[in-house]
Recover the amino acids of this structure.
């Protein structure tokens, strides 16, 4: 159950099914085109996420879609694998030949769609064609989810008639599609109630976000008795997109007490995968999965926030597989750093504090936002530095490029003596460390036990955290360096380690 309490709306509905159409309606997003391999990757992620049905494409549409559906069907996933189809024999054959479990087969239901798709034909013609198609699809062994396209702009009596006839023809489920996203939540609720009163089949709803109401409309449809909804990861889809699965799932559970089979902690990684492969960037302010959804800028809120994160968060980020990020504001200073230090239980001397603030300012001056993770790394790096250094780096020069062996020269001051050395290496970091090792050779025999690099935040301008383990005789020490420059971070870590051993 939810960790936090809200005014939850009590519903009769307890669990709903999800048809994910990221690979069909989502792929119809302008500019999106996925390869077969990418579709398979996304399908596996969706299965892992726990969606009930994966609409993997339109088998008749292209060789790529056909292959993708076929390969996804062979993977033995838990989800039902579905192909989109029109009420046409060739569409049904393609879906069955691709080994899909089911089809989401749509018939036009509004006058606009009927005239556009079957010019001059009557509504009765649409019904006859639908029945024929459903019966044929059942013959071919497919589960049939039969949808009324553009149903929100159609005569509801006709839509209900179409659904009743589909039921007689042994369709398995029906879908009410708000194809151009023009329903209001109230209208959706009323419509679903009317359909449920007359048709027994499980009802799905398919909502678009043209007016920003896809999530609200989906929820109102479910509240009124729909047993299934269509959605996409990140709300991808034609035009303004479809209902975003992550939004609907979280709102349903936390505000309405309605469960889905979604493993919520996988929502964020799935969103990132879809973002990467579709190349549709998630807006930073997107609910649940946007960069800023669990990011706080420190300032006056910082102390309240540190005392109790619930004060500015509706759910904790871990619920959806994320971590809280605290960005230090432009004027981040002593107070924010002290808050983080207190949380970590560290104390700094005035000189160390000065160094910490200087390093934070250095990142900020480069135009990069400073996160709490950056600050932690900087604090921990600065706190380990001995005040009295036996080994000091005075100069460092690197030469690196294509078709040359990277070279480094260093000037160190060791126990007061100046040492200049140069060395080559497999990479610039290796060359720099080799040069330092040469310079200290006479003083001590130091072994590098391990070397580990992490970029604290994404991006080539991120703070780089290097952790090294050094060994002298039987003593092993761990030291870290944190800079935006990977070579400097490595050298800093190595030299700090030396200072611990000297
Ligand atoms: Mn659609």
């Amino acid at each position: 159950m939810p960790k936090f309490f809200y005014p939850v709306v009590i519903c009769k509905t307890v669990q709903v099914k999800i048809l994910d159409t990221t690979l069909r309606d989502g792929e119809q997003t302008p500019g999106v085109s996925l390869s077969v391999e990418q579709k398979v990757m996304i399908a596996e992620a969706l299965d892992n996420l726990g969606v009930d049905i994966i609409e993997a494409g339109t088998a008749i549409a292209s060789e790529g879609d056909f292959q993708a559906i076929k390969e996804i069907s062979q993977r033995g996933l838990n989800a039902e694998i579905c192909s989109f189809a029109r009420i046409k024999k060739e569409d049904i054959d393609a879906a069955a030949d691709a080994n899909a479990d089911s089809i989401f087969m749509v018939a036009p239901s509004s006058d606009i769609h009927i005239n556009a798709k079957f010019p001059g034909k009557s509504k009765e013609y649409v019904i006859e064609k639908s029945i024929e198609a459903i019966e044929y699809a059942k013959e071919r062994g497919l589960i049939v989810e039969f949808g009324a396209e553009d149903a929100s702009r159609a005569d509801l009596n006709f839509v209900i008639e179409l659904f009743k006839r589909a039921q007689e023809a042994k369709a398995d489920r029906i879908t009410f599609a708000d194809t151009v996203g023009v329903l209001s939540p109230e209208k959706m609720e009323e419509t679903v109630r009317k359909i449920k009163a007359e048709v027994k089949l499980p009802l799905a709803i398919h909502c678009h976000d043209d007016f920003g109401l896809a999530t609200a409309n989906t929820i109102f449809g479910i509240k009124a008795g729909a047993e299934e909804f269509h959605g996409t990861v990140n709300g991808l889809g034609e035009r303004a997109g479809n209902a975003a699965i992550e939004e609907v799932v979280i709102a349903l559970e936390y505000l309405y007490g309605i469960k889905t089979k979604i493993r919520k902690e996988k929502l964020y990684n799935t969103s990132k995968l879809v973002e990467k492969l579709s190349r549709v960037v998630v807006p930073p302010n997107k609910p649940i999965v946007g960069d800023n959804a669990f990011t706080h800028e420190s300032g006056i809120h910082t102390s309240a926030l540190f005392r109790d994160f619930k004060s500015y968060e509706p759910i904790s980020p871990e619920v959806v597989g994320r971590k809280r990020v605290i960005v230090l504001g432009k004027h981040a200073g002593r107070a924010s750093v002290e808050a983080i230090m207190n949380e970590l239980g560290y104390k700094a001397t005035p000189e160390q504090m000065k160094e910490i603030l200087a390093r934070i300012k250095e990142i900020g001056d480069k135009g990069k936002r400073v996160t709490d993770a950056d600050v932690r790394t900087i604090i921990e790096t600065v706190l380990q530095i001995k005040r009295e250094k036996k080994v000091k780096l005075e100069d460092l020069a690197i030469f690196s490029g294509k078709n040359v062996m990277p070279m480094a020269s260093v000037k160190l001051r060791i126990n007061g003596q100046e040492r200049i050395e140069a060395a080559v290496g497999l990479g610039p970091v290796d060359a720099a460390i080799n040069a330092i090792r040469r310079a200290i050779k006479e003083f001590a025999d130091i072994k590098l036990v391990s070397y580990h690099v992490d970029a604290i935040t994404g991006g080539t301008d991120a703070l780089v955290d290097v952790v090294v383990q050094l060994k002298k005789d039987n003593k092993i020490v761990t030291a870290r360096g944190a800079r935006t420059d990977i070579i400097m971070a490595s050298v800093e870590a190595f030299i700090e380690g030396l200072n611990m051993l000297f």
About this structure: The mean pLDDT is 91. Residues 17-278 form a domain with the TIM Barrel fold (CATH 3.20.20.70). Residues 45 and 209 are 24 Å apart (CA to CA).
